[in-house]
Amino acid sequence: MKTTSPSREHLLAQFSDAIEDLNAYASRNKNSLTEKQSLELIASFEASHEMALRVINSYLATMGKGPFSGSRDATVEAFHAELIDDGKGWLDMVIDRIQYSPVYDLENRQQFISHILDRYVGLLGRFEDRMKKKMEE
């Protein structure tokens, strides 16, 4: 039996929920995060980024674009379609996710957390605002 994919509106609502959770984690002081809180922040970021990519893929599919071979290709196309405003920042996000592994030392985890808090939360928030406006058009 063929299943239908969630609507763009539903995906955007799920993404908004994920961003809300991420913002709750991001509101903590990054220098005083426990190991558990650090891992929860990273998991929340990864869930938010995955949902953003689902929204991007769904939106671009309605424009007749895709499927894409990976998150980098979808990110580049999203930049060209003006769904995101900082292509380099989004590609950095993709690369950081690829390079991050929980088995790396704590210093690498701290650098990843700094990138999440200092850059990626803002990029995801701007994407949410932009997509809400596009959905209203």
From TrEMBL:
InterPro entries, per database record: HepT (IPR010235)
One Pfam family cited in the UniProt record for this chain: NTase_sub_bind
Gene3D superfamilies assigned to the protein according to its UniProt record, in alphabetical order: Nucleotidyltransferases domain 2
Name of the molecule in the record: Nucleotidyltransferase substrate binding protein
